[in-house]
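Entry type: protein chain
Record version: 2
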Amino acid sequence: MNLLKKKVLGGTGLALSMLLLSACGSESTPAASVDTSALQEKIAGLEKKLTEQGIKSDEQAQKIAALEKKLNEFGTAGVAGQGIGGKTPTAGGNNGSAGKGDGVLITFAQYEKLEVGMTVEEVISILGGEGEALSEAENMVVYNYKGTAGNGGNAVIAFQGGKLLTKAQSGLE
């Protein structure tokens, strides 16, 4: 009977030992190691994207700095989109401001003094202001000036490259 007790206790001890070993097995299972490596790959991919975005940001900052330098060389430093005196810069010369206009009224005598090829500044000094800007293209601006007579007369003048390109009038007195 003692022998039977030893065999039973020994078998029970062996089974208990096996149970404990299986419960305490290795800390990482094959599934856990696959998940970890997949997560590590995702982290590496995200870190790579962040690095690329940082490089792109640096490149953009360099391009912006180069463009600002060019603007300063042309003497148009200040708020982006505005030139000296708040006027919109244009290629090929000063065409004046394509804004709401200053409401200046002109006479036929003033209109007759205008000559093709005059600068915007020369025309403004004769007419007393910019009139109403009707349209603006790359380096061209078209202005409308109302007549002083109040009869609906007006003049339309166009500048290209900062020079008077053409003029037309109807009903000025």
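Comment: The radius of gyration is 42 Å.
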